[in-house]
Amino acid sequence: MDTPTLDIQLKTLPNQPGVYQYYDKEGTIIYVGKAKNLKKRVSSYFTKTHDNGKTRVLVKKIANIKHIVVETETDALLLENNLIKKHKPRYNVLLKDDKSYPWICIKNERFPRVFSTRRVFKDGSEYFGPYTSGKTVHTLLDLIRGLYSLRTCNFNLSEEKVDAGKYKVCLEYHLGNCKGACEGLETEVEYNKNIKAIKEILKGNFKDSLSQFKAQMREYADNMEFELAQKIKEKVEVLENYQAKSTIVNPKISNVDVFSIMSDESYGYVNFLQLSYGSIIRSHTLEIKKKLDETDKELLELSITEIRQRFNSNSKEIYVPFKVDLGEDLKVTIPKLGDKKHILDLSLRNAKYFRMERFKQIKIVDPDRHANRIMAQMKVDLRLSEEPRHIECFDNSNIQGTHPVAACVVFKNGKPSKKDYRHFNIKTVEGPDDFASMEEVVYRRYKRLLEENQPLPQLIIIDGGKGQLSSALKSLEALGLRGTIAIIGIAKRLEELFYPDDPIPLYLDKKSETLKIIQQLRNEAHRFGIEHHRNKRSRTALNTELETITGVGEKTVVELLRHFKSAKRVANAKLDELEAVIGVSRAEKVYNYYHEK
């Protein structure tokens, strides 16, 4: 039988929860998705207009649709997750496997050994983990071995062999690290008590072990066995210290999984914290590459399923920042206040730090990807129609009205392109007129680029508010470039960005990378302009009365003259006005110099 057309396949899809698979004309699976209602979800791909280009390409490539009906949404999530990992479809987000994660094994044997492993066998042994780093495993094993005497040999300590005297104690016994179970010097009951306590510690419950050690310590002290009491005290301190490092929330919060997400244009970062008895016993952040402009909700739902599978979590409750659909078996809490909100915020902070670390690593090993991400983010933040791969920033350096100059600095792909920097001596403007100077410089810059057929920037930044921006716009209009190049003005407070014909400024997050690039541009323009200004002035021109003040250097003089425009205005300035520019200490020296005279 021939494969039915897509139209027929869509009409015959069931209104049931399930998983759908898209195939291309070669029969390769290119996308896997889950749905509460297969018919509605799959049909939406073919009836909606998609903003995302990759989604439009995906839809064009679909030649065949297969689906699997399941009982519940939870089943759909699990099946979707497993199919993505198995087939790795081109248009699905990337989820890495967990084969290399370490576990702690409590071996299924008489006098069980406790050790780390990266291989899990179904032999009745208990496995705790997986842990996200070997360091965590070693720390836990060191803690356990410091608290409890366990055997490290791999002998078969069956009752018959021990009774037959087959083994002899080793150096570990003489060092006090093992109690000699191989020679029958320790009972199975006593050894298993320790194993039970170790299991509780691995689950994050320190309470029972602490109570047991404290009772032992008091007993030794009452019997005047102070050396033994001191050894137990040291174990209590080790355990309490470890617990203090891991406890960050209300101990009543137990057996809960916490998930948070943050994302940018290309990637999502989902952090997972596992809580037990008020302690974090596991933290892991998953990086997900977006393929089809997936929403945070979609990424979080998929990641929760993947992470809970990966770490064998059986928690019945999860904390998340917003509503997610994960089936009825799981209690979903969206904390708003108190300890629960605190732990959710901590998870989000972990996701942010992970993202920052990845950016730093990518900047070193893959600078192109770093530049692409920054450019995509700037396009969104600054509401541009294209990525600002080429940015130019203008600044006037007009100190005391003498030698008026301007600077143009150029950034390409988010980095300074110093060979393209340009200085301008103001030619047509008399006196300190920032607006007219800006109009002249912008006109000269782009008239020349047009004449020489040089590439124009995608973004112009004007250091100044609405006045300087209007002046620059006049020049662009005169050259026929208005509307061709995006242009914005930066007010004195860096958070304010002005756009042409828009009286309301745009405010950027102070921590955003877009603002950092803009700050860097403006600082470079300041530096470059002042440097040129200094070169133009003779040493005598700098030798103003200001420079004769003890404790006031050239940099301070430049800052004062740049702000107040003349030495006379500096002399007449109030103390608080001076402090705002050069700080309390230097302001007092300048103020006292003029007012004591």
Automatic annotation (TrEMBL):
<dbReference type="InterPro" id="IPR047296">
    <property type="entry name" value="GIY-YIG_UvrC_Cho"/>
</dbReference>
<keyword id="KW-0267">Excision nuclease</keyword>
<dbReference type="GO" id="GO:0006289">
    <property type="term" value="P:nucleotide-excision repair"/>
</dbReference>
<feature type="domain" description="GIY-YIG">
    <location>
        <begin position="15"/>
        <end position="93"/>
    </location>
</feature>
<dbReference type="GO" id="GO:0009380">
    <property type="term" value="C:excinuclease repair complex"/>
</dbReference>
<keyword id="KW-0742">SOS response</keyword>
<dbReference type="InterPro" id="IPR050066">
    <property type="entry name" value="UvrABC_protein_C"/>
</dbReference>
<dbReference type="InterPro" id="IPR004791">
    <property type="entry name" value="UvrC"/>
</dbReference>
<dbReference type="GO" id="GO:0005737">
    <property type="term" value="C:cytoplasm"/>
</dbReference>
<dbReference type="InterPro" id="IPR010994">
    <property type="entry name" value="RuvA_2-like"/>
</dbReference>
<keyword id="KW-0228">DNA excision</keyword>
<feature type="domain" description="UvrC family homology region profile">
    <location>
        <begin position="262"/>
        <end position="476"/>
    </location>
</feature>
<comment type="function">
    <text>The UvrABC repair system catalyzes the recognition and processing of DNA lesions. UvrC both incises the 5' and 3' sides of the lesion. The N-terminal half is responsible for the 3' incision and the C-terminal half is responsible for the 5' incision.</text>
</comment>
<dbReference type="Pfam" id="PF01541">
    <property type="entry name" value="GIY-YIG"/>
</dbReference>
<comment type="subunit">
    <text>Interacts with UvrB in an incision complex.</text>
</comment>
<dbReference type="Pfam" id="PF08459">
    <property type="entry name" value="UvrC_RNaseH_dom"/>
</dbReference>
<dbReference type="GO" id="GO:0009381">
    <property type="term" value="F:excinuclease ABC activity"/>
</dbReference>
<comment type="similarity">
    <text>Belongs to the UvrC family.</text>
</comment>
<keyword id="KW-0963">Cytoplasm</keyword>
<dbReference type="GO" id="GO:0009432">
    <property type="term" value="P:SOS response"/>
</dbReference>
<dbReference type="Pfam" id="PF14520">
    <property type="entry name" value="HHH_5"/>
</dbReference>
<dbReference type="InterPro" id="IPR038476">
    <property type="entry name" value="UvrC_RNase_H_dom_sf"/>
</dbReference>
<dbReference type="InterPro" id="IPR001162">
    <property type="entry name" value="UvrC_RNase_H_dom"/>
</dbReference>
<keyword id="KW-0234">DNA repair</keyword>
<dbReference type="GO" id="GO:0003677">
    <property type="term" value="F:DNA binding"/>
</dbReference>
<protein>
    <recommendedName>
        <fullName>UvrABC system protein C</fullName>
    </recommendedName>
</protein>
<dbReference type="InterPro" id="IPR035901">
    <property type="entry name" value="GIY-YIG_endonuc_sf"/>
</dbReference>
<dbReference type="InterPro" id="IPR000305">
    <property type="entry name" value="GIY-YIG_endonuc"/>
</dbReference>
<dbReference type="InterPro" id="IPR036876">
    <property type="entry name" value="UVR_dom_sf"/>
</dbReference>
<keyword id="KW-0227">DNA damage</keyword>
<dbReference type="Pfam" id="PF22920">
    <property type="entry name" value="UvrC_RNaseH"/>
</dbReference>
